From TrEMBL:
GO terms for biological process: protein transport. Coiled coil: none annotated. It comes from the Bacteria. Residues 109-135, 265-291 form the Trimeric autotransporter adhesin YadA-like head domain. The lineage of its organism: Bacteria, Pseudomonadati, Pseudomonadota, Betaproteobacteria, Burkholderiales. SUPFAM superfamilies: Adhesin YadA, collagen-binding domain, Pili subunits. The keyword Thylakoid does not apply. This is YadA domain protein. It comes from Paraburkholderia graminis (strain ATCC 700544 / DSM 17151 / LMG 18924 / NCIMB 13744 / C4D1M). Residues 2-43, 153-187, 215-251, 309-338 form the Trimeric autotransporter adhesin YadA-like stalk domain. Residues 381-439 form the Trimeric autotransporter adhesin YadA-like C-terminal membrane anchor domain. Keywords: Cell outer membrane, Membrane, Protein transport, Signal, Transmembrane, Transmembrane beta strand, Transport.
Length: 439
């Protein structure tokens, strides 16, 4: 039947309907189903496609069944959550095994990876932890249990075993740092470097106070770097030869005021011995009070207006030996009255002058050897600060003359120091002794 007009569509209509009206009904049903459902050419409706919880279904019934299963699971999960949180209350009793009772502001954890627990607790630095009300952790990688003026004790600490473990008071008492009554012992500790690290090579006794600290009951040292006691020091001093043990029997003696008449050796490798003796030139030697050696490589036994005779001079034998007056008189007498046969006075004079020159040369040789010996003596280092006695050897060379020296220096007390030595060369031996008192 064709050409059918559209009938009325309502609850009381008895009109016939045409094909377009039926298509509209089918389209409305397809639109209501959704899921891509459409009206086929034969008027049927294609099945929809729904994705529910990752599962694809093609009917409303299957979709509802899937949703119902997921709702059931959610209901179970919510029940479990309720059971987990059933110990949270609003009366301040907190979560089970975790409680806080405070009216302070909330805690703040502003540092990266930080934790703050407790009323107004603040962890401000990276990886810091603040535990307890008003605790402040403002340094990286630290745990704070209080704040300035609000410190807390940490109790019931087990004894530490690893290097990075905390130690308890019992461990400190066992180490001797803490007394049984809890006060700190006056222990000797290492000094600190400028950057705050421990200086394991330095210990200051008495906190650096003037006068120092006496150490009693010191055992006799056995190794080279051990401390020595007074008995050891006195024994060592007694073995040093050529040291005056009593004022009435000195091996060496000098008169003068060391405070106002000190000898001065300012020239390179120079030596000065005697009150106000001065050796200012290089490699010079001044012997005796007020002697001045101001020419390089010279030995002076006086000064301008304060000359000295050199007495008891043995007759020179080598070409560089000094000659005495007897040798000089003999030489002059021989030159004047006993000329060898066939020798003119000039030749004889030249011969004697050469002899004198040889004698002077020998004197110079002796002086060179003496300078070498004195130089060797000066090369022996003194005893260092903190040491008691030092034994050393030195060497010297000057204008072909060589010498070696052996010396000992000892620190008798904190302020008194003594030194003795002997130098030997091809021309003889030189010995010396000295002492100084410092305050």
């Amino acid at each position: 039947m064709t050409g059918v007009a559209a009938g009325a569509v309502n609850a009381t209509s008895v009109d016939a309907v045409n094909g377009s009206q039926l298509y509209g009904v089918s389209q409305s049903a397809a639109d209501a189903l959704g899921g891509g459902s459409t009206v086929n050419s034969d008027g049927t409706i294609s099945a929809p496609t729904y994705s529910v919880g990752g599962t694809t279904v093609n009917s409303v019934g299957d979709a509802i069944t899937n949703i119902d299963g997921r709702v059931t699971q959610n209901t179970s999960d919510i029940t479990n959550i309720n059971n987990t949180l059933n110990n949270i209350t609003s009366g301040g009793t907190g979560i089970k095994y975790f409680h806080a009772n405070s009216t302070l502001p909330d805690s703040q954890a502003t540092g990266a990876e930080s934790v703050a627990i407790g009323g107004n607790a603040q962890s401000l630095a990276t990886n810091s932890v603040a535990l307890g009300s008003n605790s402040v952790a403002d340094r990286a990688n630290t745990v704070s249990v209080g704040s300035a003026g609000n410190e807390r004790q940490i109790t019931n600490v087990a004894a530490g075993t690893a290097d990075t473990d905390a130690v308890n008071v019992a461990q400190l008492k066992a180490s001797g740092i803490i007394n049984p009554n809890g006060t700190t012992n006056a222990a000797v500790t290492y000094d600190h470097n400028a950057d705050g690290t421990t200086n394991y090579s330095s210990i200051t006794m008495g906190n650096g106070a003037a006068g120092g600290t006496t150490i009693h009951n010191v055992a006799a040292g056995t190794s080279g770097d051990d401390a020595v006691n007074v008995d050891q020091m006195n024994s060592a001093i007694s073995t040093v030869t050529n040291i005056a043990h009593a004022a009435n029997n000195p091996m060496f003696a000098a008169d003068g005021n060391r405070d106002t008449e000190a000898a001065v050796a300012s020239g390179t490798h120079s030596t000065a011995m005697g009150a106000n003796a001065s050796a200012t030139a290089a490699n010079s030697v001044a012997l005796g009070a007020n002697s001045v050696a101001d020419r390089a490589n010279s030995v002076s036994v006086g000064s301008a207006g304060n000359e000295r005779q050199v007495t008891n001079v043995a007759a020179g034998t080598a070409t560089t030996d000094a000659v005495n007056v007897g040798q000089l008189n003999d030489a002059i007498g021989s030159a004047v009255g006993n000329l060898p046969a066939g020798m003119t006075s000039k030749a004889y004079t030249d011969q004697q002058i050469n002899s004198v020159q040889n004698s002077v040369s020998q004197v110079a040789k002796n002086a060179y050897a003496g300078v070498a010996a004195a130089t060797a003596l000066t090369m022996i280092p003194d005893v260092d600060q903190g040491k008691t006695i030092a034994v050393g050897i030195g060497g010297g060379s000057y204008k072909g003359s060589q010498a070696v020296a052996l010396g000992v220096s000892a620190r008798i007390t904190e302020n008194l120091k003594m030194k003795a030595g002997a130098g030997t060369s091809s021309q003889g031996t030189a010995i010396g002794i000295g002492a100084s008192y410092q305050w």
